[in-house]
Amino acid sequence: MKAREKEKLKDTINALKKKKGAIILAHSYQQEDIYDIADFVGDSYELSVKAMHCQESTIVFCGVKFMAETAKILSPEKTVLLPVEKAGCPMADMITLDQLKNFKAKYPGVPVVSYVNTNADVKTETDICCTSANAAKVVDSVQGDSVLFVPDKNLAGFIAQRTEKEIIPWDGFCEIHHRITPEMILKAKSKHPDAVVIGHPECRVEVSELFDYALSTGGMVKYAQENSNKKIILVTVDNMANRLRRENSSNNYITLGMVCQDMQMTDLNSVLNALEKGQHEVKLDHETIGKAKTAMERMVEIK
Ligand code: 13P
Ligand code: SF4
Known about the structure:
By secondary structure, the protein is an alpha/beta fold. The chain contains 16 helices and twelve strands.
């Protein structure tokens, strides 16, 4: 699409958004065009809070399915639209409701902490949710000496190094972050010995051990806002660098070539379609919302 056409499309979206009383929320991993039309860009935690408190009656959620579902759970009275229906998170699909029920049956009485990257039905069998921004804090808030942690075994390993509790992990992972190896970091570090390494805790533990700072995507933004003239090896999805450059262009961000295909699916045309045709509306039954909401609200209360 030509630059002029794109600008026109952005203007149309902005006008339509106002007319329809809608807000556009976008995750940090979205494409740059989406940042331009978004009212708010954030990490999973920040987006949940925004969805809960915003005044608009319609939320267009530029991200993946579990994020739009989370917005619906926290604000059931609002219409939540996911512009690309098939934009999902493969990690969230690594545990089903039945699998969680069987897992719980093996450990009676042990509370369940679910990473927010889970489908809505899994949240209904969850004691409390967490995001990458508050995972260890949430685990520590739970009663007892052990917790079942689903679905991300890497985040579970990361938390295990920061809590006294026993973490019993599910065997899930983010296919993108899991692909990153210690060798990749060591190679980048030898090429840029003066660089700071910041990365996401969805990486393998042997990778996150090489970080100077393990941060949620919102935490990375804060780091960029507070630090200038730095060389930063960014160990997460490459799109994150676009967001960080907007926050602080004095830093040099070095990326590793990681792409989340699902996050890439949303484009300006799909957002326009969402606003024009009301597609694709997130629909969850009352019972699911009720149970999942308790697990989400407990998390929001903690941080
Ligand atoms: P954040 O909550 O840190 O934005 O992470 C979400 C995610 O899906 C990372 O892969
Ligand atoms: Fe899911 Fe990984 Fe994409 Fe995040 S980066 S949305 S965890 S597949």
